Amino acid sequence: MAGGAPAQEPGDDYRCGYIAIVGRPNVGKSTLMNVLVGAKVSITSRKAQTTRHRITGIQTIGDTQYVYVDTPGFQTRHSNALNKTLNRTVTNTLTAADVILFVIEAGTFGPADKQVLELLPANVPCILVLNKADRNKDKTTLMPFAREVASQHNFAAVVPVSAKQRFQLDALQEEVRKLLPHNPPMFDEDDITDRSEKFLASEIVREKVFRFVGEELPYTSTVLIEKFEQEGNLRRVFAAILVERDTHKAMVIGQKGARLKEISTQARLDMERLFGGPVYLEIWVKVKSGWADNEAGLRAYGYE
């Protein structure tokens, strides 16, 4: 989905840099990035730990290229190899960023938010983003809440937004632009992500597993694209959903295969919308016990 380095010569005022989006699970980080970029490059669901990779979303507006980096929600409840890998992704992204968006829910600041706040490096400018501000019915409490949270870190700005309602996003981008370094663009102006179509296909299937299996399936499932082929405008995708146990496999397949069929249909439709052409999709469900606690295996499945 990325076409390589841009050919144009930017002006002296051109700004470009990496913007890390961080926060505890389920504060709307992926939704925020998708809306800012204008395309669904990071999957979403109501289930924590939906985002497991460092996902890049690119938006080019005039003389500014915003390279947003969505991160997994920082994990504190589990300590297997998968969660350690996710947390390492968060900390590595923070140190490499030019700007950080620390996202919390407007009106809510708990221990999990505090733990992420303590990770913020002092030498990287950070904006406090109060997401879901439209849900805060008593607006008189929002500013005192914002001041209380802002007092705990040297934030460059505080911006209340609603990613779903697209509220205050222009104001947020303007604050980000002020903090970006003067750099030439890193990507073509039409690029929306640096991730491959094969990677995006695996993420789309995983999103549908989370959406249609819901709370029944433990977090220890992942998706492996075993083959990705393109013939003209047609993509052929062969995917495997990996689970820990036979009981989990039955959950994904559903009665008479109905749930797996729904996962396949909705994943195919999303791929066709994103890739702009027809998709042939086959999905199998396989049992792979212990995959989430095997560091070598995690690397084989694309975890950094």
What does this structure look like?
With 304 residues, this protein is α/β, with parallel strands linked by helices. It has 2 domains: 15-179, Rossmann fold (3-Layer(aba) Sandwich), CATH 3.40.50.300; 197-300, 2-Layer Sandwich (GMP Synthetase, Chain A, domain 3). Helix content is 33%, strand content 22%. The chain contains 9 helices and 9 strands. Strand 7 (222-231) and strand 8 (234-243) form a beta hairpin. The radius of gyration is 20 Å and the shape is globular. Keywords: Cell membrane, Cytoplasm, GTP-binding, Membrane, Nucleotide-binding, Ribosome biogenesis, RNA-binding, rRNA-binding. Residues 213-289 form the KH type-2 domain.
Present the secondary structure layout.
Blueprint: E1 15-22, H1 29-37, E2 55-61, E3 64-70, H2 81-96, E4 99-105, H3 111-117, E5 126-131, H4 142-150, E6 157-160, H5 169-179, H6 197-213, E7 222-231, E8 234-243, H7 246-253, H8 258-275, E9 279-287, H9 295-300
Parallel strand pairs: 1-3, 1-4, 4-5, 5-6, 8-9
Antiparallel strand pairs: 2-3, 7-8
Helix pairs in contact: 6-8
Protein name: GTPase Era
Region (G2): 49-53
Domain Era-type G: 15-182
Structure at a glance:
The protein has helices spanning 29-37, 81-96, 111-117, 142-150, 169-179, 197-213, 246-253, 258-275, 295-300; strands at 15-22, 55-61, 64-70, 99-105, 126-131, 157-160, 222-231, 234-243, 279-287.
